[in-house]
Amino acid sequence: MIKVSLLIPTLDQSGAEKQLTLLATSLPRDEFDVQVIALTRGGPYAEVLQQHDIPVTILKKRFKFDPLAYRALKKTLQQQQPDILHTWLFAANSYGRMAVKRLSSSQKTPRVIVSERCVDSWKSNWQHNVDRRLLPQTSLLVGNSQGVVDFYREKGVPDSILRVVPNGIVLPDTTVNEAVRSQLYQEHDIPPNARLIAFVGRLARQKRVEELLWALQLIRQMNGDIVLLVIGDGPERAKLEQLAHKYTVTPNVRFLGHRTDVDQLFPLFEVFQLASDFEGQSNSIMEAMSYGIPVVASDIPPNRELVVHGETGFLTSVGDSTGFAQFAERILADPQLANDLGNAARKRMQEEFSVDKMVEGYARLYREVLQ
Prior knowledge:
Rossmann fold; 371 residues; alpha/beta; glycosyltransferase activity; Glycosyltransferase EpsD; 15 helices; glycosyltransferase; single chain; transferase; Glyco_trans_4-like_N; 2 domains
């Protein structure tokens, strides 16, 4: 039996946390004994894990470097004695490798697999220095896209420890729930004949949601029935709401904030848009494609790994609001094109990005590092 401890900062309802939960609950129980450690807090996915009888330990980290949480992590690893410590995101990647480095020679030392989930342009020099200093404690560094792996190769991570395991997606039911539609339209004063374009994600600078607002200004000149749903929250929200007013698109946009029922909203969307200037592998694009929704996304390497231009959706240059508007209008104006793109997108998710493929990819790496 291979003992695996998965370490992540939180179990909030976000992309990395979702992938960790899918992995933990899907690894074969006859081969893997899985436990989960959250550095800071639990969250919705903690409940899911516990429902699957997967032990969850919360360390309650309070500061960027919290000595108490660090000692608690070392103690937890001593108790769990995993064969593999699989860490996710910068804080867990750092704490996990530092803790393993400081385990005494008499204690079991796990192999460490680090998951990087994004082209981390946001990292400062000190964070990259931390990553480099901890490379000796890194058995493998796994990106969820080739773009992520290429980024870390450029930062000095050797090819010998770099691997790619794409995210996994569960194909959902695409049936429209009319009660959900009615409630959404009523709650947010959406005209009954409105056609919905959507963005789902954190409202942060990298997402370039302002480009979508400007594209909306162009789209509504051609189609006044459009409403853009901005689903998510973050530091840019107030600025974006002001921009919507400045661009005079307030009647055509709704800021819904964080929603726990996004899976019920996806079937209502006719187009999905993502304008990010960097990503890892976008869970929101994958979810949209799994629902059979045509995607218009920025033409960056991770998005190219998901969206096949002209086949499952469209790609346009970063910052090209005109391109976002033109492709969205093209989809909205041609029901057959929208249907063909959506069907091809859903098929691509089913064949290339299943949860089974993701789980087997990590299981294979677990076996590899122990050999």
